[in-house]
Design a protein that fits this description.
The protein has a single domain, classed as Rossmann fold, CATH 3.40.50.2300. Helix content is about 45%, strand content about 20%. It has 5 helices and 5 strands; from the N terminus they run E-H-E-H-E-H-E-H-E-H. It has a 5-stranded parallel β-sheet, with helices on both faces. Strand 4, helix 4 (about 90-95) and strand 5 (about 100-105) form a beta-alpha-beta unit. The two termini are about 15 Å apart.
Amino acid sequence: MSGARVLVVDDDENICRVVRRMLTAAGYEVEVAGNGQEALTKLSPEVAVVISDVLMPEMDGIEMLRRLRKEAPDAKIISMSGGGIQDKEHVLEIAERLGAARTLSKPFTREELLNVVAAVLRTN
């Protein structure tokens, strides 16, 4: 469903830039935010999917996910993580339990990203 608006949330500017480039090339409209707090201010009904890192400063992806479940229960969320101080599979498992539609383990390929976004957009 190209043309859909995607909000990418990550404190790593390089990740935001690369993901934006991959999604834009596939026809998506992309907006970025540097943390969960900023993402909540950019969330609108036009955003079809939120792709968020889990481990971020100010407001991490888990807290943002909790808030989105209350404030925008129909939001489609893809959580991503490269690990860090915690095992990435563990934090992604937590994100799924809290309502993430799908997860992505960093690093991921362009094909993996596009397949996950397309799959999430196909779900009601």
